[in-house]
Write a structure and sequence with these properties.
The chain is α+β, with helices and mostly antiparallel strands. Helix content is 36%, strand content 25%. Strands 1, 2, 3, 4, 5, 6, 7 and 8 form an eight-stranded mixed β-sheet that branches. The longest helix has 14 residues.
Amino acid sequence: MQPALHITAYSLITRNKIFKNGQLVYEQPGSSDEFLNAAYAHFEISYPKFHKMDQLCKLGFLATEILLKGTGHSEKYGETETGLVLSNANSSLDVDLKYAKTIQTGASPALFVYTLPNIVIGEISIRWHFKGENAFFVFKQFDGNFIVKYVNGLFENKLIKNCICGWVDILKEDYRALLFLVETTDSENAMTFTAGNLNQLNQQEHG
């Protein structure tokens, strides 16, 4: 019998604010690019490749950093035991539009490498040495029912022992990342991993 799954942590980045488990941990005015770069500096993350990433990857990268900070994740799990299941509405359109503009004067290889939405999974995996199951889906809107069904399937088939899942979307100045850490471990502040809880957290507009 599969152990009960719990949301042991979640992070939210939207409208120039960053939240961890519902608590505001950072706020800074500015454009999306200015905000993401300032947040990277604020949390004293040392990963020079961050500055070469497109906006979608920066957003997902930061949301994962905030999500896993203080969890001891690397000590608890092996490289193949973490699943990554992400989704959004705009795919890689933010960088696609920027890349299209460069075609007139000479296509930019630096932008072209990011013209697939699942590249954000690759950047997160490189950073954290993840080698487990992963998938990226494009929906019109956040779908907690699908996420729960898909992630439950990975656990039921014993393909993973924990999962980072949720939403990472950006188009120009409209951006939102909401990531959940799903584990079999229970804790005082953990929530049961259900579609209702995911959808409820997604509907909350903090601050």
